[in-house]
Amino acid sequence: MTKILFTHSYFYKMDEKQWQNQTPFLPLGTIYAASLLRENNFDVALFDTALRNSPKEIMPILHQENPDFLVIYDDGFNYLTKMCLTNMREASFEMIKIAKQNNITVIVSSSDATDNAELYLKKGADFILYGEAEITLLELIKAVNSNIETQYIEGVIYLKNNKTHKTKPRKVLRNLDELPFPAWDLIDVNSYKKIWKNSKQPFTLNLATTRGCPYHCNWCAKPIYGQRYNSHSPKRVVKMVKYLVENHKVTRFWMCDDIFGLKPNWVQEFNDLLKKEQLKINYYIQSRADLLLKENTIDALVESGLEEVWIGAESGSQKILDAMDKGTTVAQIEKATKLLQQKGVSVAFFIQYGYLGESKEDILKTIQLIKRLKPDNIGVSVSYPLPETPFYEKVKHQFKDKTNWTDSDDLAMLFQGTFNQDFYRKLQRYTHKVFRTTLGFKNLKKVLKNPFSLDRKRLKSIFSLLYYIPSSFKDKLQLNKMENAK
After folding, report:
1. Of 78, 371, 406, 460, which is least surrounded by CB within 10 A?
2. For residue 112, what is the domain's CATH number?
3. What stretch of H or E contains 33?
């Protein structure tokens, strides 16, 4: 029986910011692929890199498993893999090198390999899979085993006579329910739970209900699942939830879709089925402000266990949102945020600085948006050019030696923004301090209104004002000097 060793290239310990969070997620995309191959009578094993220290740790696993194929199959549901961080690229290259030293056929499916196929092939990979790759992988391994020409397999990039060949793209899978459950049994889930205890947060497991995104934000890449939007049925998702509740005692989920619950009545049916199965869960999602305002959507989300929504706010300036082709308005962000918070749902904003044409006035509008709406959390970054996007095409001529971030906390400006790199790094820290100050006053107001609402978390937030008020003021003065010295 053909033996396949699956792995992926994301090492949390090589991304200091993410490792400090102590909230690692399972490689969901990897175990979807492993499950499909196992269902088709292949012998599969997994080298899970997420909690490992080094790619060299694959050596004893290769000797132990003695696989015919090493499949480096990244988790395309994890936004960190879309960033194509150079730390993870080098880890991938190291595993390819070790596998080839052991005469193992290497197949790679990842955002970075899709964008840099020739580089991976030159490092020794035998095949690169592009696009949604489970079916491609299955067909490819069958073809290799039967000595069938690779040119007939859709979605494959390979070398032949020192020339790169790319077969035609594979159509995306429309009925996701055809896929077997992810192979959660290949993962040591308890090792993840142990790390999560350090974060002081309840253990959360990632679950994907959809693939793809139909919207056209011009800075957002979709190298794996594309522009089409397909989903599991609510019935299938509830079955997965029930399995995880019963077998892994998980009751909190990160619905890691780009857009959760886009199809009409999907959320309502999901809510009804959870009630029918008497499943009580909590979960958080990513969504768009305009979608959340659709009739009955928020009520159904709240009833089904929604705890937090991450909204791609990006900017408080309508000018910048329009330049991004975001398709949402500041007014929609405000309305959705207020409605969610009235229902007791936490709201978090993704904020992006440095987009082309952003002025000081636009930055101030974003700061004011945070102060005015008082989100419960924020994530702040700078615009990051991803291959195959209109934004990338606009700025690629400005690239020098550095074209990718080393890790997720790099925040380097890879193109010429309105201000310099030091300004944006200081702006990121200043924005977090403004947020913490806003949160502190928000908690102080709640406690003054209801003293019995005081708990350790709120007390800590209130006392943090003693640091954040003067510190943010100091940062503001420094930003003014840096702006004038640009």
Report:
1. 460
2. 3.40.50.280
3. helix 28-39
Asked whether residue 485 is assigned to any structural domain, the reply reads no
Q: Is 174 exposed, middle or buried (0-12, 13-18, 19+ CB in 10 A)?
A: exposed
119-122 contacts, C-beta under 8 A, 24 or more apart: 120/92, 120/93, 120/96, 121/157, 121/158, 121/159, 121/164
Q: Domain containing 129: what range? A: 3-166
Residue 105 φ/ψ, nearest 5 degrees: -70, 130
Euclidean distance between CA atoms 46 and 65, whole angstroms: 10
Q: What is the Cα–Cα distance from 36 to 33, expressed in whole angstroms?
A: 5
Instruction: Report if residue 71 sits inside a domain.
Output: yes
Residues 18 and 2 sit within 8 Å (Cβ to Cβ): no
In a domain, residue 56? The reply is yes
Q: Is the CB of residue 129 less than 8 Å from the CB of residue 110?
A: no
Summarised one tens digit per residue, pLDDT across range 167-204 is: 999 999 999 999 999 999 999 999 999 999 999 899 99
Measure Cα distances from 331 to 182, 214, 321, 373, 398 in Å: 39, 22, 12, 11, 34
Instruction: Assess whether pLDDT exceeds 70 at residue 379.
Output: yes
The overall pTM is greater than 0.90: yes
- d(C-alpha 430, C-alpha 227), whole Å: 35
**Contact partners, residue 85, CB within 8 Å, separation at least 6:** 15, 404, 405, 406, 407, 408, 410
Task: Decide if 207 is inside a domain.
Answer: no
Nearest-angstrom CA–CA distance, 219 and 388: 9
